[in-house]
Amino acid sequence: MDKKSATLGLPGTREKQIAMDADHSHICKFERDDDDAYEQVADNMVELIANAVQAVADRERLARLRVLHSGPSLESREHACT
Question: What would the DSSP string read from start to end of 50-70?
Fold first, then answer.
C-alpha cells in the first residue's frame, strides 16, 4: 500500500503511520481484543492521546509562565507614576 494514501500530512507527532497487514476496509475490524492488529492500533491511539494531552499541558504551562514573567503592563506602570 502506498504510504501517501495512509498519511494525512499533520505536523509533528500529530499522526503516526503503522504498517498493518490489512486493506482499508479491514484496518478497523478486529476478531478479538487480543488480536495483534487491535493491540497495535490501540497502543498507538493511547500514545497519540497521551501526546495530545501533554501538548495541551505544555501550552498552558508556557502561557502561565509568560503571564508571570511579563510583569505589570505599561498602563499599570503609568498609573503608578501619577
Answer: HHHHHHHHHHHHHHHHHHHHH
Q: Which of 7-16, 35-44, 51-60, 66-75 has the highest mean pLDDT?
A: 51-60
Give the CA dihedral 55, 61, 66, 67, nearest 10 degrees.
130
AA identity, residue 1: M
- In angstroms, rounded to a whole number, what is the distance separating the alpha carbons of residues 82 and 68? 24
Cα 36 to Cα 22: distance, rounded to the nearest angstrom:
12
pLDDT at 76: 56
Burial 35-49 (b: 16+ CB within 10 A, else e): eebeeebeeeeeeee
Distance CA 45, CA 28 (A): 12
Q: What is the pTM of this model?
A: 0.60
